[in-house]
Amino acid sequence: MADLSLQDIRKSFGAVEVLRGISLEIPAGSFVSLLGASGCGKTTLLRIVAGLESVSTGKVMIGGRDVTSLPPEQRDIAMMFQSYALLPHLNVAENVRFPLRMRRIGNPSEQRERVMEALETVQLAHLADRRPRQLSGGQQQRVALARAIVSRPTALLLDEPLSNLDARLREDMQVELIEMHKRLGLTTLFVTHDQEEALSLSDQIVLLNAGTIEQQGAPADIYSAPTSAFASSFLGSSNLIPAIAADGKLQLEDGQSLPLPAGDYPSGPVTVALRQEDASLLPDGAEVPSGWVSLNGRVGTRVYLGARNRYIVHLGEERLRVLTNAGIQLEAGTSARLALDPSRLRVLPRDKS
Amino acid sequence: MVSAIPLPLRIAAWVFVAFCALLLIGPLIVVVGVSLSESRFIAFPPDGLSLRWYAQVLSSDAYLAAGWLSLQLAVLVTVSATILGGAAAIAIHRRRLPASEAMATYFLSPLVLPTIIYALGMLMLWSAFVGPVSLLTLWIAHSVIAVPYVVRTTLAVLADSDPFLEEAAATMGAGRVQRLWLVLLPQCLPGLAAGAFFAFNLSFDEAVVSLFLRRPGLTTLPVHIYNQLEFSPDPAVAAVSTIMIGLTVFLILVIDRLVGVQKVASN
Predict the structure, then answer these.
(1) Residue B133: CATH number of its domain
(2) Backbone φ, ψ for residue A157 (5° rounding)
(3) Average pLDDT over residues B193-211
(4) How far is A113 from chain B (nearest CA, A)?
(5) Kind and range of the H or E element at A127?
(6) Contact B108/B174 with Cβ under 8 angstroms?
(7) Is the pTM higher than 0.90?
(8) Domain of B165?
(9) HSE (CB half, 13 Å, CA atoms) of A61?
């Protein structure tokens, strides 16, 4: 049974249609990410689920109940905002208790118990008496999280909650979110523009592009088997190489060609997706591993990433990004061979753009 | 580090600060000094020390009546200006009103309009359409002058607040009324308190409008002080002024206890 069900949601702001028919079934207890670039409509969709935005057409069901025309306060949800939105005049414990008071859950002593339980979950019980402004950004974020889970809502909505944290804290919070989701099993809808966050946290990723669902699936599936050039470039930042598929070969624009991997592919103009970690650079004279194929290119800019280097490799007009380990040192402007495993190539229909 | 300010400039700055402080505090010192005088003439430094003028003020029916009227009026104005100004600020802030920008300007216009013109207009309008002036007339007129201060101070705190707080409260189950009482008003509180303070002071020492809208039995304290100065000046005027200064200081202390002067002043 779906805890959260969206049926053909459309939303227009004036003449601009930001959501063009989104249908989504989210099973109870799952963690679903809405992933997309800014302006794709993911936050609008979340706000529609929360009731902060109305739909133009479509239906929102939460826990089997049609809530399309209900205001936020009558929906069994909790939402965590990017700015955390802690009430500045209340202390931490009062902030966390607020949803319980508003929704009349439990008597005062039960409420206090649940507040402390939620604060212990985020390891902030010792700061219960502080005011939000006395807390660091990371601590405020945990308070907001505690406040979102304290009422055990049918749907937990998270609007880019990690985006204001620095890298280290963000990694810690990701782990905590995973553990908390395991423990509490709240149906969670998570908005992010960060593919790594989506990949590491979710059971399901819903990739949005220009107001429609581009692809939807488990992180591993959507990462390894993108069905469109957009999905492929957004997840894992693939190189997209235009080619013509014909006669069992992929003819590239600079004249070189690649063997067409096994499988059923469209013929004619296609886009070849190649992940930057799925190719390696060989200095002149080095041997191509067996089963791999190679292309001739020219070395461009090198970006040092610590453990790895990222090289820009020019293939005719195309610029490809290739990750190598830090030991490989190549001079810009020299020629190099790009070796790749043809089975890692993905051949996708050319985007109609 | 800002250690590189040249010495002459630093001296000039200190002189300037001292000069400003003198202009601000000097007159107050003179008033307090005069009020303690033993002689029956207004003179500074005072001749001798006594509290006889305080005794006289506190036993004068005219002073007490004027003070009581001013106090009543100031409290009424504080209440009405805070409610009206606060409501206006919230409406302007949310841009729910047609032409919020224009409304904001309109609500601030009493700040720039010459009070004397407003006072004259109010007197003529009231006499023509309502009748003799009364406490109600003063209440309305003072409220009009005080409302912009409340609007300003409340708008300032609202501009600083997190715009998502009310939405967040809604997702936590707070209905319209609860959002108003538990989220919006607490946010406005420092601005409302500052505005209320301004409104009280404004009304309590307003002289121009009160002078135009006076009649026998409707004389506010500032108007009575003015009359006394004109017709029979004595240190009692200074004594009553000192009491007014004391009242203001007391109000500042109360505000400080409740919301913190720093918070109010920074807005």
Answers:
(1) 1.10.3720.10
(2) -110, 125
(3) 92
(4) 18
(5) none
(6) no
(7) no
(8) 60-266
(9) 17
